[in-house]
Amino acid sequence: MKLVLASSSLAPCFCVRFFPPNHNNLNLSFPEQRKIKLRAISVSCGMSEVLKSDLMEPEAETLVNKRNLYAPIEPYSTGNLKVSDVHTLYWEQSGKPDGHPVVFLHGGPGGGTAPGNRRVFDPEFYRIILFDQRGAGKSTPHACLEENTTWDLVNDIEKLREHLKIPEWLVFGGSWGSTLALAYSQSHPDKVTGLVLRGIFLLRKKEIDWFYEGGAAAIYPDAWEEFRDLIPENERGSLVDAYHKRLNSDDLETQYAAARAWTKWEMMTAYLRPNLENVQKAEDDKFSLAFARIENHYFVNKGFFPSDSYLLDNVDKIRHIKTTIVQGRYDVCCPMMSAWDLHKAWPEAELKIVYDAGHSANEPGIAAELVVANEKMKALMG
């Protein structure tokens, strides 16, 4: 078997053989595979590290050269799906109509989708499905918190799958999208052909405290002070709660001010090198209101999970699913501790650490590894 190593540059990748040429554990049934002693192999190449197990490699001779984003494409169909008495979701399809289905789960929650999200998938192989989650993007009503929980979204994904008459699909999600992808796949493992996850967020208290209660201020003290200073000193015992009060104020201008500050904090910390265009998204009041209100709503409610470690505790339900995790080494929004905790609980999944990246999927190293992950999934999907 060969292990593919790839740098985050666009240079050609190469292979290192770890197993003899006749080694092929794919001839085994899954229970037999599980008997193989998993070997956590750590290797580095250029700007990326791969930690993987025997179970991920699709073929004994695998080499992925494709690392560039695909050209922009337009949807071939769009629609709106009413999923409750309150909410209607925008959805779209692009790529190959009879290709292997992949559903893209956006971040936030509340972030919505963007045309660039289609570009990490081969449009000649994949049937690419994007949708805006409740209250986000083109879904209506905008920024609505009513009937908006993790489990509502999990049910929405199933309703969309059934609406589009898709038996099963590859699930792709980054940041909050990785949270939702894990929750969905653990609820419906028989509908998932593979997982590609980026910027792991398990929505545990320590992750919320790190980013919203002062931990990340050690790295971005300048941006942090602007976020913190919107809140009076006597309310800073919990900034998440203090922002919750303002984001749900009866005064729309109070909501907008809190939303801009909340969104700007995240946008300023999302890239390893600050991205001005990303930061300016905070000035879009429509985007910021949905992004901040819905995020804060989920965080105040602890993701609507029954326990802090719920997603880790239920890994056994998806252990058999072929999975790649892409994580920026210097991710401040969703620090690598969460990807590492997931990797330890789930060594069968492949973990790729991108050394020259932070959180955003638009950083070159992360984008390249996401393309590679989707290319490797093609070999599995046939």
UniProtKB/TrEMBL annotation:
Which species expresses this protein natively?
A: Arabidopsis suecica (Swedish thale-cress)
Q: Name one GO biological process term.
A: proteolysis
Matches recorded under PANTHER family: PROLINE IMINOPEPTIDASE
Q: Name one GO molecular function term.
A: aminopeptidase activity
Under NCBIfam families, the record lists: pro_imino_pep_1
Q: Which UniProt keywords apply?
A: Hydrolase
Official protein name in the record = Alpha/Beta hydrolase fold
- Please give an example of a GO cellular component term from this record: cytoplasm
What Pfam families does its record include? Abhydrolase_1
InterPro entries (UniProt xref): AB_hydrolase_1, Pro_iminopeptidase
- Domain AB hydrolase-1 as annotated: residue spans: 101-363
Q: Does the keyword Hydrolase apply?
A: yes
Name the domain of life this protein comes from.
Eukaryota
